[in-house]
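User: Hi! I'm a student and our assignment asks us to look at how structure tokens line up with a sequence. Could you show me two examples?

Assistant: Happy to help. In each example below, the sequence comes first and the structure tokens follow. Example one:
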Amino acid sequence: MTNQQLLRRMSEDMQMRGMAEGTQALYLRRAEKFLAYCGKSAHDLDERDARQYLLHLTREEKLSNGSVNTFNEAIRFLFAVTMNRTMNYLQMPRFKKRRTLPELLSREEALAIIAGCVNLKHKCWLLLAYGSGLRVSEIAALRVQDIDSRTMRVFVQDGKGGKDRYTLLSSECLRTLRDYWREYRPARGGWLFPGAANPSGHITSDAIGKAFIRYRRKQGIEKDVSIHSLRHAFATHLLEDGATILQIKELLGHASLNSTWVYLHLANITADLVSPADRRCGDGR
């Protein structure tokens, strides 16, 4: 089997496991680069070749730990699943991830970005990100019937990990969606946001992300934030308003609480607290 045939087999293996399309594409690119670097048949490769390539990525190409880890994962999949080869993975350790906190938009900043949006369709996107906590891919893939005005919920079908869920629908978002529907008339049963170049498909995640950047710049916000930051703000501000971690986990569609705990670090939990250094003995303060 040639390397190209092997990559096609790898693609099939990922499809059979229901992996996200973005992950499939990323792993294939990573595996293809690895094979091109080694310059020989994959069947002649072992963990020593993989180790040498990962060191090359770290030392010469100076990729981030996270990027090197995705190469590592793609190579492991190629060997372990597609080639059914047992390897000594102790020779291919993953970098330990450094848990950094994302930069957070304040309530005022999030609302200012939305208020500065003059395009109805774009405003819907931003409100669904901040008011419902949707991922950008989930906003793009919404259908008209996913908006439930009776229960004030948004249905997310086949979200990350292939999971369905419901999340909040804000009153402001519903009003804007109704204005949008009157102007654009998307067909029931079809995409809520059809693609501009391909009306039979939905809008791209990239188009939504670019719209956010435009309005963020319009408000003069220099923070390192993206459309996904509105989802972070949704969860953090809900937590500050009294929602529980379990509620937020379900609204966001997290598979594990480990992904949701980060919002405890982002939320302002010090607002009503007094430092012990500011309490004087005996006065009850």
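Example two works the same way, sequence first and then tokens:
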Amino acid sequence: MLAHMDDHGLPISYEVLDPGTPVYSSDGEKIGEVTHVLAVPEEDVFDGIVIDEHEGHGDHRFADADDVDSIHEHGVTLKLDANACRALPAPTENPGVMKDDPAEGAPGFSDKLHRAWNLVSGKY
């Protein structure tokens, strides 16, 4: 099901992105809605978003900040097509390490997924 919304509004910061904002794949399919924005505000770091899937399962998916193409008032567009969006990882309490690089010293992908799980499970 392709979305027919041409105007997603003005570009906005992740800091004012509201839960319930629709999330679209790069090919225009609505894949869900924003549930949580993951960020470290004191460091002005955007980690990504937790998405409640559109297809009615109530499943949650995690889209890393690198997967986000644009954030607007009325929609978020990911860099991934609809099939890749369906393959996004679910937030888990003990996620596997996927993109960590100890030399970087910054929180890695597993830290982001852990924060996502804590938000979804109500620990934050």
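Here is something you could point out in your write-up. Residues 14-91 form a domain with the SH3 type barrels. fold (CATH 2.30.30.240).
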